[in-house]
Amino acid sequence: MEPTIAARALSAATEITTTALSGDDPGTVLGSVVRHAAELADADLGLVMVRADDGHVTVESAHGEKTAGLLGLVLPAESAAGTVAAGGEPIVTEDVTSDPRTSRYVPGELRSYGPFAAAPFGKDGRQLGVLTVYRERDREPFAASTVEMLTAFASQAGVVLALAEGANARHRVTLYQERERIARELHDVIVQRLYAAGMQLDRVRRRMRKRFAGADGARLGEAIDQLDQTIEEIRGTVRALRSPDPEPHAPEPAATDLAESARAEVRIAGELLGYPPTLELSGELADIPAERADHVRAALREALSNVVRHSGASETRVSLQRDREGVRLRVRDNGCGVPHDVAQRGLRHLSERAEAAGGRFFVNSSPSLGTLVAFDLPLR
């Protein structure tokens, strides 16, 4: 490489590296790479093509007067660019459309060019793409030394893409952590408050039913139903926020202290029942995976809700146990049982939760013996 060209190439490479490390948009940095490469090669067109898993290459950045329609252009793995991107040797030729090494699969958008040179780039042994330059047909071919310069700039493109991948991964991790925080606030704070408000309204409606006119009682019932629906919608939002992230190395949601959650649910139920339910805790409950803990908490909340709303019980016992098999929840009351005319939506949802998570859910209920709700969930 001529000393003057070498000095210009070094200056350009330094500029590109500084820009890439400053966190600029990767597309902008790739544009700088291909612009400098095309100018130093005295080319009419420069392209950066990124390789996909199946070997085809896609134009990600272009520089030149005739770039319309080139961005997003896909070339097959068997094309010259695809072959070079796959780890083949750099290519330089007088005519891209007639040289047997390059003439196959030249798209119509590039057939007006003759002289052609290409150099692959990658990172940590992984082939990422190819940097290509073109000249119009009536111009001189590229010198062999051009490939040396192209190879230097191709490595710059590899660094840019590697940095972009790292930035995207960090962004996904940050986004996932924020989603988990929002989900936990929705579930542990907002849902709990709505649940308590709905239960209080229901208790007011049942105690003061005779004092309400029919229309007022109906409106209060509708308000309670809307709260129930809102709680279910928020739970759906929480499940969506906690859905598996496509990044395989994203962190798992933080484990949940299920014992503390159970105490909070029982405390709310006790305020509404007028007496504190008995709570028995057994085993290590402080490190339950968040998704599993949500299932158990939903089962406990639904069971206690039914006790408050329908049972008329004077005694309620909650047992939460962790053993080698998983987590076992039992909620027993000495009330009148689950009325036949009561909507079973909540219990049906718990049955579906248990089935989807590989667990078991059942209810035993009678007017003379009260109600037992059981929810068993494996942790593996």
Automatic annotation (TrEMBL):
CDD domains reported for this sequence: HATPase_UhpB-NarQ-NarX-like
Gene3D superfamilies: 1.20.5.1930, 3.30.450.40, Histidine kinase-like ATPase, C-terminal domain
A GO MF label: phosphorelay sensor kinase activity
UniProt cross-references to SUPFAM superfamilies, sorted A to Z: ATPase domain of HSP90 chaperone/DNA topoisomerase II/histidine kinase, GAF domain-like
GO CC entries: membrane
InterPro entries reported for this sequence: GAF, GAF-like_dom_sf, HATPase_C_sf, HATPase_dom, Sensor_HK_TwoCompSys, Sig_transdc_His_kin_sub3_dim/P
Taxonomic superkingdom: Bacteria
Domain GAF, chain residue ranges per copy: 25-171
Signal peptide region: none
Alphabetical UniProt keywords: Kinase, Transferase, Two-component regulatory system
SMART domains, A to Z: GAF
Claim: Transferase is one of the keywords in the record: yes
A Pfam family per the record: HATPase_c
Descriptive protein name: GAF domain-containing protein
Organism: Prauserella cavernicola
